[in-house]
Amino acid sequence: MFLNASNLSPESTRRLEEVRWRLDSLPANEPGLALDEIAAGIELMLDGPEWPLDQLASALRDFDESAQAIIRQAAQGFVQASVLGTARGAVLHAASTRAFRAIALAGKSFLQRQRYSEEIPTNVAAEMATRLMRAEASRLKWEHLLYGPFDRALWQQMGSVFLEAEEDGRLMLPVHLRRDRDTETSTYREYLRAVALQCSGLEQMPVELVDVADRLIQHLLPALHLGAGPVEGARFIVSPMLGGEPRRLIKAVSEGDPAWYFSPLLAERVFAELELMLGKGVVPGGLGAGPGAKDHIAACIRHFRRTWYDTPSARRHRRHLMGGRLAAVRGFGTFSQVISGGEAAALMSWDLRDVSVGGLGAVAPVSEYGMPRIGELIAMRSDDAVAWRLGLVRRIQRDDITRAFVGVETFALDPRPVKADDGRSPLDVLLCDPLRRGFHLRVAAPEGVLRPGAPLFVAEGGVIQKLKPLTGVWRGHEFEVRTYVAV
């Protein structure tokens, strides 16, 4: 805990006692309130007379370590709130972000002052820089949990701390941040974690996988590489000196460009080992728990392989900028009610931004209707159109807290609701293609409704048509699409 406070002024001693009180009274089951208390305690340290550096380091260490278990609890609560669509997630996000900012601000204050002090050992400076970097990388992860907006100053802050640590010879210095644990990290590894997060295409992942992706990246850190020169497998670059965020390496970097190269090539060996473990039903500690943990980790591995290794696929169809308004409906059940003549209140108004043969981009309001979800079914119709089209949310980005840019892949241009029967019970489904004997067609339904291998009998236009199931199937969020042939 805190060092001896005998050399503090009366005012600082009073503040120290209040800080201690805040730590001792953290709410056990209220992560939002607990993180607010931690942030308030750190802010109290920085407000008023300067503390001796050893006291500041000790206090920040205690606050930071006290926050870790609470932050994990807050992350779980945030994901649950996002899935359920409750407002608790916004409270947890705000409290977590405030705590990360406070930790980073205290670390920055320490590093600025220790430059002119000869009393602080190098290992303490390395620890404070690493705590700062971990907080900023965690803040980046939490920004991705909401798909933005992103603080561009974050990369400038991390870049300056990274370069200063390199210049002082403590960039790679091992640091033990966790009490009673043997795990080591460093300023370099925490910056590498942030780079890997930014290069992972998190805007294409469901919110429940973003936290899993971060934990998987931390598991992979020993196999990831960030260096000042080109290396095999490097497809991303970042410039700590310029303070910019990582970007994909499209063309050769000029000789004078101060770039660092990120290569995840060696992670493939770890992926293969993890897949063997998952196949045996074993989930490594720290990567997750519960019935869905294996599927979540496997999904992250597939996503990382596509994002880190595969050459980005060329856009198959040209994108055309276009304005206008769209009527939009989220979710299979809601759209089924709308298309059947009810639930008009479920209609949302989106702003069209661009279109292509295979999809469109639109800006959706967030505050009134909540955040769209990756994989969610979206039905859309322009003001001058009669037919609806069905799409799947592939990407979300926010530059504003009230709006989100949504990239939608369209898969049905004129879906039709029909009554169907699988021999057991009547079903309400959507036909995504024309119903013609001998031709394939896709049928959309809520997830788990269509029985694999079971034929469907569909009534349309007064005629009963049998649909024979084929093997094609793909799933979105709470719905699936199966392929049949009309016989």
From TrEMBL:
This is PilZ domain-containing protein. It comes from the Bacteria. The lineage of its organism: Bacteria, Pseudomonadati, Pseudomonadota, Betaproteobacteria, Rhodocyclales.
